[in-house]
Specification:
Layout lengths: L2 H20 L17 H88 L12 E4 L5 E3 L1
Antiparallel strand pairs: 1-2
Helix pairs in contact: 1-2
Length: 152
């Protein structure tokens, strides 16, 4: 086979392959006058068709796997966001409730101490004779060494 025929056959095979891939011809539309085993185009076109179908099947499967994996990852990330937000809200709510309870307990303790102090002051005032109490416009400042109330 000379070089000119080989180049012509190679170009023809390329044109047939491109037309086949583009869908403008099918494998049954290519006919050769010479159908003996020496014609490489018929076998090459069959191999090309098989390889193309195999690649389409592989690529379609790979794309489906990627699509499924991506969908699963998106779902997992969304659930992770929901879990994180829920955990943060739960922590914050618990801290706020603990602080509110601590403030309420402190308020109750202070009010109780104030009430006890008021009762104690009233009891002391009832024990002091009227003659030793401070005048209405003065306040008791303490008790001197002799046990007398001092006023100001």
């Amino acid at each position: 086979m000379n070089m000119k025929i080989l180049m012509t056959n190679t170009k023809l095979l390329g044109i047939i392959a491109i037309a086949f891939l583009a869908g403008t011809i099918t494998s049954g539309a290519v006919a050769f006058a010479d159908k003996d085993e020496k014609n490489p185009f018929s076998a090459a076109l069959g191999k090309l068709s098989t390889a193309l179908n195999n690649e389409v099947t592989r690529a379609t499967g790979a794309e489906q796997t990627l699509t499924t994996s991506l969908g699963n990852e998106v779902t997992d990330r969304k659930q992770g966001d929901v879990n994180t937000l829920s955990s943060a809200n739960g922590y914050t709510d618990a801290q706020l409730a603990a602080e509110a309870a601590a403030r309420a307990a402190a308020d109750n303790s202070l009010q109780s101490a104030l009430n006890n102090e008021i009762v104690a002051r009233k009891q002391v005032e009832t024990l002091i004779p009227i003659s030793q109490q401070c005048p209405a416009n003065e306040h008791m400042t303490g008790i001197d060494a002799a046990g007398q109330i001092t006023c100001n």
